[in-house]
Design goal:
This protein is an alpha/beta fold. The protein has one domain (about 5-375): Aldolase class I (TIM Barrel). About 40% of the residues lie in helices and about 10% in strands. The chain contains 17 helices and twelve strands. The chain has helices at about 5-15, 20-25, 35-40, 80-85, 90-100, 115-120, 135-145, 165-170, 180-185, 190-200, 220-230, 235-245, 255-265, 285-300, 315-320, 330-340, 340-360, and strands at about 45-50, 65, 70, 75, 105, 125-130, 150-155, 250-255, 270-275, 305, 325-330, 375. It has an eight-stranded parallel sheet. The chain has a two-stranded antiparallel sheet with strand order 1-12. Strand 5, helix 6 (about 115-120) and strand 6 (about 125-130) form a beta-alpha-beta unit. Helix 1 (about 5-15) crosses helix 16 (about 330-340) and helix 13 (about 255-265) crosses helix 14 (about 285-300). The chain is globular, with a radius of gyration of 20 Å.
């Protein structure tokens, strides 16, 4: 068995074991994928400052995200179709996150439903919603999240219009997968994946099929999805979601200081600096490059989190040192899930945690709550997206 020491090891196993259309769904961005790539590569411009002769005993990565205790300030991001990466994938990921002591965020576009995940976990998880036009569906969806005792609602605001992802179109992405000569040939090489899928009843979008009006099968779902997103979304609408929910609200998809200020004004408990993992506006600036400007704008007014591009504990440390109070991993845990199921998600969290803990110590800090820019060498102009490095 291969020795797994980093997230890239998990990605390689994941690529071998998962059908191509679902691997490509996770491991791709929109258009030219420039932003998808720079989300990762821009972390490399930031250097860590090594300190010595510091007592490194009694280290702690414990912190809080939106008032919730976490073993480290890392949450599992909402990822659609997680249950197609591995049978009952959302349940497996939620269990791994619960055992590790970090938040799990369930996507509206999950295969396992809110109720499925709640039934198989013992602690509250977070739930992500899109900004959809159908008020009746939205209110019932939020009510279902409340009934499942979800402890935070994550509202994704950067998906009014869907960015084009070439690989998904070419692969005919669907759940369950469409049976074509190409997809069948590929799935025949993924026998363990197929056997697991045959053993579960969860193969459709569990939060939508049977819940949205007129959606009773995959064919009707595609029609509904094409018309569901609210292109007229504004800040009043987001404030309305907050009112309907009545609990902790996190706004995901903030990439500009002015939008961060608006989110703070409507009373968001946290914002997530995120470009949707490079899956929406290609050519946008990376999340980590926009973090300093957003921290300058709202750092003392709303809790700031970051996702997009994190592949290591060092990436987490750099985001935290630049001011973020929390981070999210999406692809990193998906690699683990597709590679090894629930143990793979646990492995991804262990890798991130070890890298975070050791790197923090070598930078001379023993408490994650004390990390800051004093630990970094940041290139001049890094936080100014108009400066070309």
């Amino acid at each position: 068995m291969a020795v797994i020491t980093n997230i890239e090891d998990l990605r390689r196993i994941y690529e071998r074991r998962t059908p191509r259309m679902f691997y490509d769904y996770a491991e791709s961005g929109s258009w030219t994928e420039q932003t998808f790539r720079e989300n990762i590569s821009d972390f490399r411009h930031i250097r860590l400052r090594q300190r010595v002769a510091v007592d490194m005993s009694n280290r702690s990565t414990r912190s809080q995200m939106v008032g919730q205790d976490v073993a480290m300030p890392v949450a599992l991001a909402p990822v659609g179709l997680t249950g197609m990466q591995s049978a009952d994938g959302e349940i497996k990921a939620a269990r791994a996150a619960e055992a590790f002591g970090v938040p799990f965020t369930l996507s509206t576009m999950s295969i396992c439903s809110i109720e499925d995940v709640a039934e198989h976990t013992t602690k509250p998880f977070w739930f992500q919603v899109y900004t959809l036009k159908d008020d009746d569906f939205m209110r019932r969806l939020i009510d279902r999240a409340r009934a499942a005792q979800c402890s935070a609602l994550v509202v994704t605001v950067d998906l009014q219009v869907l960015g084009q992802r070439h690989k998904d179109l070419k692969n005919g992405l669907s759940a369950p997968p469409k049976l074509t000569a190409r997809s069948i040939a590929n799935m025949m090489t993924k026998i363990p994946w197929g056997l697991e899928m045959l053993g579960t009843k969860r193969r459709f979008f569990g939060n939508i099929v049977g819940h949205a009006k007129g959606v009773s099968d995959p064919a009707s779902l595609s029609t509904w999805t094409a018309e569901a997103f609210d292109v007229s979304l504004d800040w009043k609408r987001i404030a309305q979601f907050k009112e309907w929910w009545g609990g902790k609200l996190i706004v995901k998809g903030i990439m500009e200081p002015e939008d961060a200020r608006r989110a703070a004004e409507i009373g968001a408990d946290a914002i997530i600096v995120s470009n949707h993992g490079g899956r929406q506006l290609d050519g946008a600036v990376s999340s980590i490059r926009m973090l300093p400007a957003i921290m300058d704008a709202v750092g003392d007014k709303v809790e700031v989190h970051l996702d997009s591009g994190i592949r290591s504990g060092q990436d987490v440390l750099k985001a935290l040192a630049l001011g973020a109070k929390g981070t999210y991993i999406g692809r990193a845990f998906t690699y683990g899930l597709g590679a090894m199921g629930q143990p793979g998600v646990t492995k991804a969290l262990e890798i991130i945690h070890k890298e975070l803990d050791v790197s923090m110590a070598l930078c001379g800090e023993t408490d994650i709550r004390n990390v800051g820019p004093h630990m970094l060498y940041v290139p001049q102009g890094f936080g100014d997206p108009t400066v070309q490095l």
